Amino acid sequence: MSGATTEYQRTEDGCFTAPLLLTYPYSRTVGETLARFFTSLRDGRIEGTRGSDGRVYVPPAEFDPITGDPCTEWVPVGEQGTVTSWAWQSEPQPGHPLDHCFAWALIRLDGADVEMFHAVDAGTPDAIVTGSRVAVRWSAERQGGITDIACFDLIPADMDDASAAGTPDEPPAAEAPRSPANADEVLRLRQPVAVTYEWSAGPAASGHLEGLLEGRLLGRRCTSCDQVYFPPRNGVCPRCAAPLGEEVEVGPQGTITTFCIVNVPFLGQRVKIPYVAAQIVLDGADISMQHLIQECEAHEVRIGMRVEPVWKPRDEWGPSLENIQYFRPNGQADTATIRATS
Amino acid sequence: MTRDVAIVATAQRPLEQHTRLTSVELIAPAIAAALRQAGLERDEIGFWCHGSCDYMSGQPFSFVSAVDAIGAWPPVVESHVEGDGALALYEAWIKIQSGECDTALVFANGKTTAGPIDRILTLQLDPYMVAPLWPGATAIAAVQARACLDAGVVTEAAMAAVVARSIADGIANPNVGWGTPATESELLARPYVTAPLRAHDCGLPADGTVAVVLAAGDAARSLCARPAWIRGIDHRIASQRFGAASLTESSSATSAAHHAGVGADRVDIAEIYAPFSHQHLLLTAALGLDTERTVINPSGGALCANPQMAAGLIRFAEAADRILAGVADRAVAHSTSGPCLQQNLVAVLEGA
After folding, report:
1. Which pLDDT tens digit goes with each residue over A239-286?
2. B132 contacts in A (CB within 8 Å)?
């Protein structure tokens, strides 16, 4: 999972928002049954499995939906089938099988008893009805997955296996049994997911972000327990659920309450290791926040050390704590006691 | 032996068509209002249970930060259901049955408009065979609607009648309040979005929160003059495989209704969660509701406003409110999840 924000905006109701793209690069193992199905699809064949009641499932059932037993009997089925229900997608969306209007359909392939869900390139909604005969259109490049079937096409009556042969349920002859150990078998399915959200900071944190644009560190005081939160997330005190009240300017000096020395390199690291990440409670605040400590050796950092922020050049500021590049020792005497709540 | 458990208080935050509040900011006022209505302090709640969906809010592990809305200090007993808040209510009911607590506060937040909800709901489909096609929730429902129309179990006119009533009831519902009245013929004249569904056949995405307080036995009686007793509750799920079960009925709804005891007596009102208009008709039949004797969805239901993940628990709150207020003696509350009414939760609420 990764997330990325780009440009922020202020909305008319005073909230900072930004588009947030969340991506999940899912890669799924497919298991024995689906491996065979997807490998066959890649090789241009369609097979299903037979359930305990004799029904043939395409796509295959891994386990019988009624008895729960493994489905082990494979049945080759035809590349043509019958539409049993459909809907019209008038405006295709990103990721759809077709880039122009088309039908979604449940399709019972010849020789199968249970439908598969896919797209039919019907042209217009008038061209398709429940009962329409359709045929597989294979993808030009097949990798092993349901999208190896690009979509289905409507079959003109004279091209229809079912009407020509008069035996709509007769499947094609079974292929020779496949080797159980197919070194080239499809074992994984990549399903990248990408969704863009409108991320909103909400009204309470937006005042804090507005302050950061001006170089001010604004927290809020709980109306019940008087603790000052920085940042004031959500406008609610997480200890007592009371609303946060007045804005309180805190810092810029603060005290280190705890810290760690980072020696591990990782993807996206922006600071040279070793470096110190510390919890800092700003003067006037009751809750610590995390930031970097620089301009001193890592081994000199200690709990109780007094620090001050080093700001980026003003023209690089945004509504973000990243306006502060890091904190550095401010030369004041250590704070002897750190409040337990920090 | 089961313990007597009742809904003793409910609170909803009025729905919005798009909010920029954070999830915590949405939840906290509803929790506070439910506690006020029940006359309970936070530390008197034995169990907290939350329903929401990370994919919908666009925040992985959002339920972790949502605990901020409770004020979880000292630490509380809490659980989260990645689903509709009605399922969280079911978990809370079981927790009370276990004897571990006598009170529970159940809450749900539905920030449906934070992202492209129709596309996001693809992620609940079979990840191998269906999700790679990115059909979205509406297309799946539309295929089901066509099957129902073909089979003659619904008609477009009947779907329009359901929508017309939902709009009118939504306008009258203070937690909704929006909408423009339309006749059936006006609705039928509108274009399809994903034929055979028109835009109004699909629940309008909305943002909102709801909180419900449960209490057992004497605790319920001491908190509330007329608790809404949960006399039966059952949850059933069927395979989500298209074609494995009939699309023109909801056998899991029928089964849940049977085991919850819906048919044992007359039902004054029913609040059912139908995200699409044809599903309202399917559910009415599946739950065995008599439209002559039962007022179905006096709140307007989810067609006029569908804050997903809260919408099911809102049905429970709306049903309970009518028992609490004494305008109904026996009510049915229903919630659904998954494509094509895959999962169904049904409860029977009684005033005595």
Report:
1. 999 999 999 999 899 999 999 999 988 888 878 888 999 999 999 999
2. 145-147, 189, 191
Domain of B97: which CATH number? 3.40.47.10
Q: Which residues contact A165 (CB under 8 A, 6 or more apart)?
A: none
The number of C-alpha atoms within 13 Å of A304 and in the hemisphere containing its C-beta is: 6
Nearest CA in chain B to A86: B143
Q: Are A59 and A41 in contact (CB under 8 A)?
A: no
Contacts of A167 (CB under 8 A, 6+ apart): none
Q: What percent of chain A has pLDDT over 90?
A: 75
Q: Are strands B47-52 and B78-82 parallel, antiparallel or unpaired?
A: parallel
DSSP secondary structure of B300-322: -TTTS-B-TTTHHHHHHHHHHHH
Q: What is the mean pLDDT of each run of 10 residues along chain A (342 residues)?
A: 66 92 92 95 96 94 90 96 97 95 98 96 97 97 95 86 52 49 80 92 92 95 95 90 94 95 86 91 95 93 96 94 95 77 46
Residue B265 has, within 13 A of its CA and on its CB side, a CA count of 11
- Tokens coding A126: 């008038």
Q: How far is B267 from chain A (nearest CA, A)?
A: 33
Tell me what ipTM this predicted complex has: 0.94
Q: How distant is the alpha carbon of residue A112 from its chain centre?
A: 34
Q: How many residues does chain A have?
A: 342
The pLDDT value given to residue A180: 47
* Mutation for B interface: A124, A137, A236, A341, most B CBs within 10 A: A236
Interstrand relation of B192-195 and B269-271 (parallel, antiparallel or unpaired) = unpaired
Domain annotation covers residue B167: no
Cross-chain residue pair A11–B143, CB shorter than 8 Å: no
Cβ-based contacts of B278 with chain A (< 8 Å): none
Considering only CB atoms, which chain B residues are within 8 Å of A119?
133
Low-confidence ranges of chain B (pLDDT < 50): none
If phi > 0 it is left, if psi is from -120 to 50 it is alpha, else beta; for residue A240 that is alpha
User: What residue numbers bound the domain in which B71 lies?
Assistant: 5-115+205-223
Query: Which of B21, B73, B129, B153 to mutate: most A Cβ within 10 Å?
Result: B129
Determine the Cα angle at B118 with ends B166 and A4, to 5°.
135
Q: How many domains does chain B have?
A: 1
Measured CA to CA, the distance from residue B86 to residue B84 in angstroms comes to 5
Phi-psi region of B205 (alpha: psi -120 to 50; beta: other; left: phi over 0): beta
Q: What is the pLDDT of residue B85?
A: 98
CATH fold of A44-179 reads OB fold (Dihydrolipoamide Acetyltransferase, E2P) (2.40.50)
Which single residue is written with the structure tokens 């929160």? B209
Both tokens of A61, joined, read: 């059932």
pLDDT at residue B208, as a whole number: 95
pLDDT at position A37 is 97
Residue A227 confidence (pLDDT):
94
Domain ranges of chain A: 44-179, 201-329
Q: DSSP code of A180?
A: S
Helix, strand or coil, per DSSP, at residue B200: helix
Cis peptide before A231 (omega within 30 of 0): yes
Residue A260: phi and psi, rounded to 5, are -140, 155
Which of B 61-90 lie inside 8 A of A, CB atoms?
Answer: 65, 67-73
Domain annotation covers residue B111 = yes
Asked if the structure places residue B59 within a domain, the reply is: yes
Q: Is residue B43 part of a domain?
A: yes
Interchain contact B192–A (C-beta under 8 A): yes
